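Table S2 (continued). Query chain:
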Amino acid sequence: MRSTVQAYREASAAKRRKRRCILMLRSMQREPRPFEKGARQRLITSIVTRRRVGTQHELLEALARAGCLVTQATISRDIRDLGLDKTHDVLGRPRYVSPQAARAGDPRDALAGVLAQFGRSVAAAQNIVVVHS
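Corresponding output:
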């Protein structure tokens, strides 16, 4: 038979384990809270680059899932401050993109980089150019 002291210790240990589990679950749940402007704008940029966000309402929901409490007016100001562009994806759906992603590089710069990296010599032969790599 178990002694009263042993039963008390086991019950106390079970209560402590339960309390630890509850505290851990609470800490895992994200309560929506206001973010500082810089942190919020970094989060918006991260969301826009990782997924297709077509409307301010979708962005509002994504921020809420990330635990950021914000209004539509704040989102509108942040979009303007960040200079996000609204374009269409390949299926024709609207989406926000960051200005760095929207800007395509000059193909001549890309060609110059490839030639500088891999080209050994260049020779003209009538109407063609021969690049030795």
